[in-house]
Amino acid sequence: MNQAKSKLWTKDFIIVSSANFFLYLVFYLLLVTMAVYAVEEFNVSESQAGLVTGIFIIGTLIGRLFIGRMITSVGNKKMLYFGLIFFILTSLLYFINGGITFLLITRLLHGIALGMASTATGTIIAEVIPEERKGEGIGFYSMSITLATAIGPFIGLYMSQQTSYQAIFIFCLALGIISFIISIFAKIPVMEKPAKSDKPNKLKLSDFIEPKALPIAIVVLIISLGYSSVLSFINFYAIEIDLVDVASLFFVVYAVAILVSRPFTGRLMDMKGANSVMYPAFVLFTAGLLLLSTAENSIVLLLAGVLIGFGFGNMQSTTQAIAVKVTPPQRIGLATSTYYIALDAGLGFGPYVLGFIIPLTGYRNLYIIMGVVVLVTTILYYFMHGKKESSVTTIDSMASKAN
Q: What percent of the chain has a predicted confidence (pLDDT) above 70?
C-alpha cells in the first residue's frame, strides 16, 4: 500500500501534465507568430504588434489573480473543465477577421482561459503527487512547460513559413480539444472546501501578493522584460538578418540548455545558496543578449540561444525557489502566485513597451540595451536579496565548520 502511494508516474499525473503541455504548446506557438500576423494582416506598428503578443499574457495574469482565490470554493475539477472549454471557445475567435481591436480582445480572453486552466492543472498536480515526492514531482511537471517553450516556438516559426495562419489556428484549436479530451480520463481529487466564516470577507492586497516575495518578484519583472524582447521579436529580427530558417531552432537550443543545466544548478543552489546560480546567470543572460545583437550567421544566433537558456532559464527556477524559501509555509501558494504575476507582467507588458523603442533603436540596439538592463539588475538583486543570501550562507558555512 505504501509503495502504491509513493508512485509518481501514475495515469493521473501523466494526463494532467500532458494536458498542461498542450495548453502551453499553444501559448508559445502563438507567442512567436502573432506579432508578425498582426503586421501582415492589419499593417500595425511594432508597438501594436507587441501588444497583440503581450495582451495574452496580461489575460493569463488576470486569470491567475482571481481564479486562485476561487478554486477552493468552486473545485479544481469544475475549474479545469470550465477553463479548458473556455480555452477552446476563445480559440475559435481567431477565425473571425474583425480587425485589430477584435484580435486584441480575442488574445485577452484566450489568455484568461489559459490562466484558469493552468491554475487548475497546477493545483490538481500538487494533490496527485505523493507528499514524500512533492519536490521531484513538481520538478517533472514543470518540464511540461519547459518542453513547450522549445517545441511551441519551433512549430510556430516553421508553420508560419510553410503554411497559412488559418492552418496554425486549426492546429491550436485541435491541441485545445485534445487537452480537454484527455483530461476527462483523469481521476481528479475532490478539494476540501474551506470552512465558512461569519466575518465579512474584505479584500486586501496581501490576499493577492506575498510581501516577503515581493523583492525577488521585482527582479523577476525586470529580467522577464529582457526575455520578452527575445520571445516577441526574434522572428522580426531573424527576417531582418536573413536567418529565418534557423530562427525556429533558437528555442530548441534554449530549452536543451535548460534541460541540461537545471539538475546541476538545482544541486548547486542547495549546496552553495542562490547567489552561486544567480550571479553567473546574470552574466550569461547578458552575454546571450549582447551576442544576439551581433548575429550574422546561424552559429552565433544559436549560441546566443544557449547562453540565454543557461542565464534566464536558470534564473526562472532559482527566483521561484527564492520566493518560496523566504515565505512562511502557510503562504507558499501566494508566494508562487506573486512570482508568476511578476513573470507574466514582464512578459506581457514588455512587448508593448519595447515596441515604442524599436523604431528608434532597431533590433540590434534593442538587444544591447536589454543586455545592459539585465547586467544592471545584478546590482538590484544584490540589495533585494543577494546581500541577505550572502549573510545566511556565511553563517551556515561557519556553523558547518564548527560542527
A: 86
Q: What is the model's pLDDT at position 351? A: 83
Q: Does the 207-403 domain belong in CATH 1.20.1250.20?
A: yes
pLDDT of 321 strictly over 70: yes
Query: Could you tell me the residue ranges of all domains in the chain?
Result: 8-189, 207-403
The mean pLDDT of 280-287, rounded to a whole number, is 97
For domain 8-189, give the CATH number: 1.20.1250.20
pTM, to two decimals: 0.76
Q: Same CATH fold, 207-403 and 8-189?
A: yes
Q: What is the 3-class SS of the chain, one letter each residue?
A: CHHHHCCCCCHHHHHHHHHHHHHHHHHHHHHCCHHHHHHHHHCCCHHHHHHHHHHHHHHHHHHHHHHHHHHHHHCHHHHHHHHHHHHHHHHHHHHCCCHHHHHHHHHHHHHHHHHHHHHHHHHHHHHHCCHHHHHHHHHHHHHHHHHHHHHHHHHHHHHHHHCCHHHHHHHHHHHHHHHHHHHHCCCCCCCCCCCCCCCCCCCCHHHCCCHHHHHHHHHHHHHHHHHHHHHHHHHHHHHHCCCHHHHHHHHHHHHHHHHHHHHHHHHHHHHHCCHHHHHHHHHHHHHHHHHHHCCCCHHHHHHHHHHHHHHHHHHHHHHHHHHHHCCCHHHHHHHHHHHHHHHHHHHHHHHHHHHHHHHHHHHHHHHHHHHHHHHHHHHHHHHHHHHHHHHHHHHHHHHHHHC
Q: What is the pLDDT of residue 49?
A: 87
